[in-house]
Amino acid sequence: MHKNFTHMVKVYYEDTDAGGVVYYANYLKFLERARTEAISNIGLSNKKIKEDFGTLIIVKSCNIQYKKSAYLEDELSIRSFVKSITRTSFFMNQFITRKNDLIAEAQVHLVFINELGKPIRIPDIIYENFKPFFCDTIKI
């Protein structure tokens, strides 16, 4: 069985509209924070990846489906895992939940590029450290 990265987010006033509902674009910020924490969880950072390997991780595409609304002061859990991987990129599935309610789910295609913007091979240390988080099926 694969491992999941889990990151908790509290919804602040700045994340919501006048009605106290999370503004749709802010879910993308929550997902980004969870991915950043996932990298930190394996002992790296975006800054370290750039400095040590000359690579950046960029979002090539993101498909997000909104299921329910989140509200001011909700405690949200973001679960992430690597769905599949190639030589230069990986697909990460992410689920935002509030207790047992699925709020949103996203499939994000992330690509490793050099400073010229060209795709490059995923550094071995990153590939090896992400291995426990690979999954062949989606489970909620």
Please give a quick description of this structure:
The protein is α+β, with helices and mostly antiparallel strands. Helix content is 22%, strand content 36%.
Distance between the termini: 13 Å
Instruction: Name the CATH superfamily classification.
Output: Hotdog Thioesterase
Q: What fold name stands as the CATH topology?
A: Thiol Ester Dehydrase, Chain A
Number of helices: 3
How does this structure look, described?
The protein is α+β, with helices and mostly antiparallel strands. The protein has a single domain, classed as Roll (Thiol Ester Dehydrase, Chain A), CATH 3.10.129.10. The protein has helices at residues 26-41, 46-53, 124-130, and strands at residues 5-10, 56-66, 75-85, 89-98, 101-113. The chain is elongated, with a radius of gyration of 15 Å. It starts with a strand and ends in a 10-residue tail after the last helix.
What's the structural blueprint in terms of helices and strands?
Blueprint: E1 5-10, H1 26-41, H2 46-53, E2 56-66, E3 75-85, E4 89-98, E5 101-113, H3 124-130
Antiparallel strand pairs: 1-3, 2-5, 3-4, 4-5
Which short descriptors sum up this protein?
elongated; 140 residues; 5-stranded antiparallel beta sheet; alpha+beta; 22% helix; Thiol Ester Dehydrase, Chain A
